[in-house]
Amino acid sequence: MKRLEPESVGDVLRQALDRQNMSEKLRETRACVLWLRIVGPQLAQVTGKPSVKNGIMTVGVPNAALRSELMMVRSQMIGQINSILGFETITDIRYTS
After folding, report:
1. How far apart are the C-alpha atoms of 68 and 79, rounded to whole Å?
2. How far is CA 36 from the centre of its chain?
3. Whole-model pTM?
4. pLDDT value, residue 3
5. Which residue of 43, 74, 76, 88 pairs with 39 in a disulfide if CB–CB is 3.0 to 4.6 A?
């Protein structure tokens, strides 16, 4: 039996995630975590917990005025999230009541 070169745990985990097609889901989960960082703690406390499915982030917003404000900066927030992730993971953000 040949001895393989040692690999880092991170490399092994990345390979396992890629084989199981879980890399995209992991990035979507990371995008949800980034919501707090992008909008700040006060706004994150007012909005609902974000969820992502097929690249579309859905966030609960309690009132129309705040929803309108967030709509104006939606493309900037998408850009920030994708920039931090290093991948084009989020394609849209939808705000629900």
Report:
1. 18
2. 11
3. 0.78
4. 56
5. 43
